[in-house]
Amino acid sequence: MKKKMVSLFLIAAMGVTMLAGCGNGAGTAGSSTADSSAAGTSSAADSSVSGSSTETAAADSSASVEEGKVVNIYCWNDEFKSRYEAYAKDLADKHGVKVNFVIVANDNNAYQNNLDAALQGQDAAATDDKVDMFLIEADYASKYTKSDYALDVVGDVGLTQDDLKDQYQYTKDIVTVDGKQKATSWQATPGLFAYRRSIAKAVLGTDDPDKVQAAIGDWDKFNTVAKEMKDKGYFMLSGYDDSFRAFSNNVSAPWVNGTKIVIDPNLEKWVAQTKDYTDKGYNNKTTLWSPEWSADQGPDGKVFGFFYSTWGINFTLLGNSLADANAEAKVGNGIFGDYGVCEGPQPYYWGGTWLCAAKGTDNIPFIKDLMYRMTCDKDTMKQITLDTQDYTNNQTAMNEIANSDYKSDFLGGQNHIKLFAEAAKKIDMSNISDYDQGLNEAFQQSMHEYFEGNVDEKTALDNFYKSAQEKYPELEK
Fold it and tell me: pTM (2 decimals)?
């Protein structure tokens, strides 16, 4: 989930020093809106990579295929829209189509509700109103990949196993059902711990990533440093939710066993640690995505670090670290360069976005070209990382950058891609379920009341079960 993103032009203006030079980030998180991209409109990156053998073959094979004139892509913010406009907009002209982005925010399940209604009405919809492609997140990917609404990207769309061979295996496994891969992603999303270099120096005596990692390399060490931070007038974490993904992504079993909700021991550890941190003043009592949480990442923040995956560093943290996100950004504003990253106490992942071709689409040739360009083409994916600092789903491209002299000025000259490349090898998504988004959110929200001292732990758990069963009546305590 990417709640706040810094714009394409904001990143470029900051002059982030990378091998490729200028940046191509994403815009602000989407509200309910539809945005159209007409064929032939100028792009933010006219140098986008094209002409691959797969795309050429698709063009040849689709010469006799009459495509629809409008491609409707459903998503919850404008991140993919910015990627499309920067690296693949020429495909609209090639196929003679108009690309329309239907953007509905994720809040209160609005995106899924809107998408579900559109997919259920697919057969009756006018040709130009049909869903052609839609995006999904890890927390609810299986809901759609297990359905008939998402097409097989190989058997139906036409990508080959050779096209997909360099993608991280977990990004394929999570969307594969009965041997059919039902979606494809341009991202891999391993997580790291992003810390303030100045605070590390003040408390630990060093900001060197290897030495910081040695100091917080497991949860016992992490807790020890939390006390040291408090003693020196800092917070270890901003709020209640910051470490949640590091625990929830390392559970021993899925949320649901049959129809029974199961609270994993690792989630119980998160509750115990967060309550302890709150009572002892090791966190600043904020909640994820709140203005106070965002402010803690900026120049006036007193928080040591944040758990973030790939998108969180290059989008959210970068934007929140500026002195004024609405002003012209320049290197030196805010605390640009005062962050570093290390692995942290435990490997984890957070998020990820997959592209699905919708059953009933009449734009398979365009979708095939777009999926190849954005999720299979090594040169395009390498360029996305060089331009934006995002971590893309191509092992060869990422290893090339990891082993180069690439550096991020935002991260004090660190090559964070090297760390991400190592972390990506440790991602395990074997315990995901259809209920992850709803139950993760309900569990966190219910525990907030306990952390704040408004209810006892038993009452918080009762409230969680009640909320869970309201969302999913088929589940039992």
Answer: 0.82
